[in-house]
Amino acid sequence: MVQFDNQYRQVKLKIVYYGPALGGKTTSLQYIHRITDPQRRTKLYALNTASDRTLFFDLLGIDLGRIRGYRLTLQLYTVPGQVQYNATRRAVLAGADAVVFVADSQRSQASANRESFANLFDNLAANNLDPDSLPLVLQYNKRDLPDVFGRAELEAELNRLGRPAYDTVATTGDGIIEAFAAVTEATVRSVGERLGIASQPEAVRRLIDNVRLAMDPLLPGRQPGSVEAPTVLRPASAATHLGGDELVAEAVRANVAMTDLNAQLDRLSQELARRVSQLRAVAEFTRAVTLTGAPEEVARAFLERLLVELGAPCGSLVLLGAGGELLEVQRRGLADDPLARAGGEGSPAALVRDSRQPYAVHIPDLEPSQILASPWLEEMSGIELQSGLMVPLVAHDQLLGLATAYAGAGRAAFTEEEIELAGVFAGVAGTALDGARSWRQLEDMNRSLEQRVHERTRELAQALERQRSLADQLEVRNAQLEEANRQLQELDRLKGDLLHRVAHELNTPVTSIRTAARILSKYSELPAEKAARFVGIIQQDTERLTGLIASALEAAVLGVAAGAADARVVGITELFKKVLAPLRGELGDRAINLQVRVASGLAQLRGDAAQLEAAVRAVLKNAIEFNRPGGSITVTVRPVRRDGGAFVEIRVEDSGVGIPADDLPHVCDAFWQGGNVLTDKPRGLGLGLAVARRVARNHGGDLEVTSVGGSGTSVSLLFAAGGGEAA
Amino acid sequence: MSAALAAASPGCRGALVLVADDEPNIRETISFILEMEGFQVACAEDGEDAWEKIVSLRPRVVLLDAMMPRLDGFSVCRRVRAGQATAGVRIIMVTALGQRADRERALAAGADRYLAKPFDEEELLQAIRELLAHSREQ
């Protein structure tokens, strides 16, 4: 009787191993237990007598996988063979979905086989089970022993219904799996009809394949271990199987329930252990993908972890952009992945894209349109891929990618737990990938922002620099303008001063001359001495005018004749004689002591005699004019070197008032005079030093003035020793 | 105008005229002519000297050279006009340059007349007499 367990969404299929005592029922179950994938079965429970014989039953549960949301579980029972335990047998047989009759092949057991077989049919009838429709498989056991019946004899004796029968040796396992597979298939088919899946032969076949895969001892990592002793439970009911039928049935039911609970507990603790390990894997995975920074690394870590966790040898990852465009494909153990590529209507890829749920694919079931042929299939054939699993990477409801993992031949389809785990992985990876992409966008934005800030800063710095340089230029221009303006104002002032001085110098003697002349003509009766006085004034001022005109003409001539020095030998003594002669009177009047010192060996210089005289005279006149009465003038003539050139220096030092530092740069300007134009009595036209400098320059030299205000002035005339041909 | 006419003017005879000029030849010739024309004459050889003599001698007319040592003529003129006791002194400013700017400067400083060197002695005498006549009318 198919048992639906809605609480755990479980369908239990009950297969009872029936037969005479000591025929090999428990041994068969032990072998099945031994070679079954531990992930897929419960412990083997035994409710035994003290003599280690089956008291009530043995029980082994085997997981077949899910169908229509329900987990299909096989429950394998044995019954006690001894005749006296019939009530127990009947109770265990209740609700059976299939029976395996284990016959003892020994001739000595002929009657025990016969009695047990008849007893089976009695108990089937008692449990309202139809022997004609109930799947039944026979094991002719102990085929390795001597003195056994031939197969035909056993067939004739026990298999008049013509059910599948297998020669078995339970102690070695020979034929056990074949018999078990046969009864399972028959059971699943029978139950499948009742569950409405008979019309889905592929689903039925997959269930059966799962049974085979779960039990194939040849699979890698599935070497049968040593025989494991059944887990012995203390019977839950004190009732003895020797009691009345009702009582025994009650006891069996209680013990089945207890055993079931035990199995359930085992399952749950196994489940718990699996969950813990899954959680650990998820945590480790989360750590792995979230610690890797770049989106590509997250994707790579995800694919590698996924394949490791699923035990998948190969797989691929397709990464999609925001618009669903293909960004990147990563593959492991595959050159191509047509399953991921084939995205047509109804293809697994399309289903995953639409549902956003993991999707397990049984590759042999796929229609050719659902995969792409060629290289892939050839590649697949090498490793005989059975199962594929496609997992979507989703974040914020957006499909970021599609991962595919393939299980190699020799392992069952991906289990629910694996699919679930893959889904969790994909969820974590999706979030991590999304984060990594966002982070990269942020980084890119930040980089671009930094770049822009950098550029702007540089532009700003350049602009500031330009502005600064402009400001500097402006400042320089401004200073230049100010200087030019100052010079202009100075020139203007000089022009005004010059006019006043020249006018004063010229007009003052003219005024006295004119007035004196008017007196002489107007007052004819003047006394003689008075008339002589006015004539004297006329003469005096006429001379003064003549001197002024001469020096102006001299300056004009020399100024125009720049560079035209006539180079002749001029004796120094003669030069000073000529210059000093007209000045003696003035020197004497003012009691100024003049000394001329000429360096020994220096007797002459070369140049234009007239120019040299004018220059020396101008300097000496200045020294006299600005000296104090009773002062001194020292003239030194000597050879000197300046800037590598040989010169003759005529230095005139006076003990006069000196020249203020501000006026020094101007003393050689024509018509320039120190002091206040209105109150300082002009002394000539202010041409002397300008003339002297011109002469010095004409002779390849220059004029140098040093002065300390109040303590005298020193003027040096420098003439090139050769006479200034170079000038 | 003849010397006789000038001498005939009663207001002019004996009027004190101060000649302030740093040029001795100018002082000598001008003061000789003024004396010949019947004026009393005093001389000053620089600006400070002129100011002192204006204050102490109270001349009716001052012939004031613009360019003089120690204190220029313009400054002397401004002092004369600023002082209550001296404000009535008539001033003829003399400059070496007959430029309009100098003329304006002289008048701005308070000068009554302005003469540019070289001036004619008749021009000078005319100016003095007019100033004296004007002041007497006042």
Describe the structure.
The complex is a heterodimer of chains A (727) and B (138). The termini of chain A are far apart. In chain A, 48% of the residues lie in helices and 20% in strands. The radius of gyration of chain A is 67 Å and the shape is rod-shaped. Chain A has helices spanning 25-35, 86-93, 110-126, 151-158, 176-195, 201-215, 245-291, 295-310, 338-341, 348-355, 375-383, 416-522, 528-560, 572-580, 584-589, 609-625, 688-698, and strands at residues 3-5, 10-18, 45-48, 54-67, 70-78, 98-104, 136-141, 165-167, 231-232, 314-320, 326-332, 359-362, 387-395, 398-407, 568-571, 593-598, 604-607, 632-642, 645-654, 703-707, 713-720. Chain A contains 17 helices and 21 strands. With 727 residues, chain A is α/β, with parallel strands linked by helices. The model of chain A is unreliable at 372-383 (pLDDT under 50). In chain A, strands 1, 2, 3, 4, 5, 6, 7, 8 and 9 form a nine-stranded mixed beta sheet that branches. Chain B has 138 residues and is an alpha/beta fold. In chain B, 48% of the residues lie in helices and 18% in strands. Chain B has helices at 3-8, 24-36, 47-57, 73-82, 100-108, 121-137, and strands spanning 16-20, 40-44, 61-65, 90-95, 113-116. In chain B, strand 3 (61-65), helix 4 and strand 4 form a beta-alpha-beta unit. At the A-B interface, helix 12 and helix 13 of A face helix 2 of B.
- Termini gap of chain A: 139 Å
Question: Hey, roughly how much beta strand do the residues of chain A contain?
Answer: 15-25%
- Major β-sheet annotation of chain A: 9 strands, mixed
Structural class of chain A: alpha/beta
Principal-axis shape of chain A: rod-shaped
Poorly predicted regions of chain A are 372-383
Number of helices of chain B: 6
- Point out poorly predicted stretches of chain B: 1-8
Radius of gyration of chain B, in Å, reads 14 Å
The number of E-state strands of chain B comes to 5
Listing every helix as H and every strand as E from the N terminus to the C terminus, the arrangement of chain B reads HEHEHEHEHEH
Mean pLDDT of chain B: 85
